[in-house]
UniProtKB/TrEMBL annotation:
Keywords: Membrane, Transmembrane, Transmembrane helix. This is Uncharacterized protein. The lineage of its organism: Bacteria, Bacillati, Bacillota, Clostridia, Candidatus Ornithomonoglobus. The chain crosses the membrane at residues 16-37, 92-121, 133-160, 180-208, 229-248, 295-320, 332-351, 363-380, 387-406. It comes from the Bacteria. It comes from Candidatus Ornithomonoglobus intestinigallinarum. The keyword Membrane applies.
Length: 408
């Protein structure tokens, strides 16, 4: 019996395509409105353009930047100045910079954000057959979350998260479809933007296993691995490029530069240390302050992740429900993603800072694609009560739009 396959052209492709387009158009329109109100136009030169400068240096035959830029976070190693962030965004910008398009980062960030919303809808539609609710879910994890703050412009810190979100959510989508090679490659690209995305390989493997098991129920895990082993080759090539670049710059295949930032070299505890966890972990739940009768949201090192990204409220609520009355598969999937989520959260709180100046809790947004996949997996099985997700969507959009306008 042939497995029915959802696609934009089959069998309800026209309505699927309409909702898919709606996700992209709505996101593009919202970003353009926010850019118009904050003068953060995607076609304008970006002030914090580390990845553009790095691509220029590579084209000039240098691995370092050739000089110091005091307004950027640069690694200092052997008397030279290097971009201190994982390199993949510069990979994307390289051909455009070679053509002389030195402000391409803003356009890349804009396109990435729109694609992120489109793939969020496509992922949701794989589990949620009601297209309206699939669209609502996609907006909940994008426009209604702290992701919105990172999507407005292409500043070096934000474009990496923007790209990581889009690459991860699209990787998860292709894993659901059983396209291992594409999924692994996109995941490897996401790791080259935000290294902690590496832990979500477990979610990808689960989704691939589920897809292959649906097609060939009698196939064992070992047989699946043997049949699809070549799918890891593109991802391995991407990973080797990172390691070669790291070794050429810093003498270590695992060092991309952040440990050589002056702010981390000045302290004995370095970039990561368990001593940071106690204070930083509290920032995941830090509530706004009351000052002169006004509610004040902290603008450095993050505040309550449930306020910044209400999609987490939905995830935790559905997790609790699935643990009580869900199937074995649902409990396994939800428990696994929840474990990965807290491993990720503890890891980021071991970092010296929680993202510096920003609104919300932007480090947490890196976990949203896998949380979203797990949420859609469960929502797709339970029709009752779905509409309640409109509440966190409305609250999340209102707060994050407000924060973007205030911050920029």
């Amino acid at each position: 019996m042939q497995t029915k396959k959802l696609s934009l052209s089959n069998p309800d492709g026209s309505s699927n395509l309409i909702y898919c387009a709606a996700a992209g158009v709505f996101t593009a329109a919202l970003l353009l409105i926010l850019q118009a109100l904050t003068d953060q136009w995607f076609f304008s030169p970006q002030p914090y353009n580390s990845y553009i400068l790095q691509a220029q240096s590579w084209l000039e035959g240098r691995l370092d930047l050739g000089q110091n830029y005091e307004y950027l976070e640069l690694a200092v190693y052997s008397g030279k100045y290097f971009v201190s962030f994982p390199p993949f965004p510069s990979y994307i910008m390289l051909p455009f910079v070679a053509l002389g398009l030195l402000s391409c980062d803003g356009a890349i960030a804009f396109v990435s954000a729109v694609l992120g919303a489109v793939f969020a809808y496509r992922l949701a539609a794989e589990f949620i057959k009601d297209k309206k609710f699939a669209l609502m879910a996609a907006l909940l994890v994008t426009a209604g979350s702290n992701w919105l703050f990172t999507a407005v412009n292409a500043w070096v810190w934000f474009i990496a998260q923007n790209l990581a979100f889009t690459l991860t959510v699209s990787s998860l989508f292709y894993a659901i479809r059983g396209r291992a090679g594409v999924s692994f490659a996109l995941w490897a690209c996401a790791v080259g933007c935000r290294p902690f995305q590496i832990i979500y390989i477990a979610v990808i493997l689960f989704l691939l296993y589920r897809a292959y098991k649906a097609r060939q129920p009698h196939m064992t895990a070992a047989e699946m691995i043997r049949a699809h082993i070549s799918a890891v080759i593109p991802a391995c090539c991407i990973a080797v490029s990172y390691m070669a670049l790291n070794y050429a710059r810093f003498g270590s295949i695992a060092e991309f530069g952040h440990n050589y930032l002056p702010e981390f070299m000045r302290v004995d505890t370095g970039q990561f240390n368990i001593e940071y966890i106690k204070q930083n972990f509290g920032n995941l739940f830090r509530l706004p302050e009351i000052s002169d009768g006004k509610i004040v949201f902290q603008s450095a090192d993050g505040f309550c992740m449930f306020i910044a990204s209400p999609v987490l409220i939905s995830f935790f609520a559905y997790w609790f429900g699935a643990m009580i009355r869900g199937t074995k598969e649902e409990r396994l999937a939800l428990a696994g993603v929840m474990l990965l989520f807290w491993i990720h959260m503890v890891s980021i709180t071991a970092h010296k800072t929680m993202g510096g100046s920003h609104y919300g809790n932007r480090y947490v947004t890196d976990a949203l694609p896998s949380v979203f996949a797990a949420l859609c997996f469960v929502i797709g099985k339970y029709k009752r009560g779905r509409i309640i997700n409109a509440v966190p969507l409305a609250c999340g959009m209102a707060l994050n739009i407000y924060w973007v306008l205030i911050y920029f």
